[in-house]
Amino acid sequence: MLQPKKTKFRRQQKGRMKGIAHRGHELSFGSFGIKTTAACWLTGQQIEAARQAVVRYMKREGQIWIRVFPDKPFTKKPAEVRMGKGKGAPEGFVCPITPGRMIIEAEGVSLEIAKEALRLGAQKLPVVTKFVVRRDYQE
Predict the structure, then answer these.
(1) Per-residue pLDDT of the chain in tens (139 residues, 90 and over written 9)
(2) Which residues pair with 2 in a beta bridge?
(3) Residue 116, in any domain of the structure
């Protein structure tokens, strides 16, 4: 009996988040940053909440950089709808995050202020993060 021809392409629905970040995993702009330790989807609302928390604590001192942008649309079907009948309507946009990805960077404030500000911002995110400091940083 003939077997169906196997193709090298597999149909992927929502995308797999495997491996670690090969891009955006180092400090590029600031001296301090928060880096993820797990994979997740970040929405625009979560990123904005973290940004506001950081800016409020820093009291308009220094500068911050948001290193991620939600550019992947995700869809959702309405509640209590039968199976089939196509794909759901676009619900919003997310940013797929892999472990090691830098989320926010800060510059122009002391180590203590940056550590507390980025800790408050990290509380708004649904992923475990760690605080990183530039290797050649001097106070």
Answers:
(1) 656 555 555 555 667 778 898 888 999 999 999 999 999 999 999 999 999 999 999 998 999 999 999 999 988 888 999 988 888 898 899 999 999 999 999 999 999 999 999 999 999 999 999 999 999 887 7
(2) none
(3) yes
Supply the range of the domain harboring residue 67: 32-73+90-133
Distance between CA atoms of residues 33 and 47, nearest Å: 14
Fill in the DSSP letter of residue 87: P
Number of domains in the chain: 1
Three-class DSSP category at 16: coil
110 domain-assigned: yes
Looking at residue 7, what DSSP letter applies?
Answer: P
Rounded distance between C-alpha atoms, residue 51 and residue 47, angstroms: 6
- Looking at the domain assignment, is residue 5 inside a domain? no
CA-nearest of 62, 86, 89 to 74 is 89
Q: Does the model's pTM come out above 0.90?
A: no
Helix axes of 44-58 and 111-123: crossing angle, nearest 10 degrees: 150
Q: Which residue has the tokens 């009291």?
A: 59
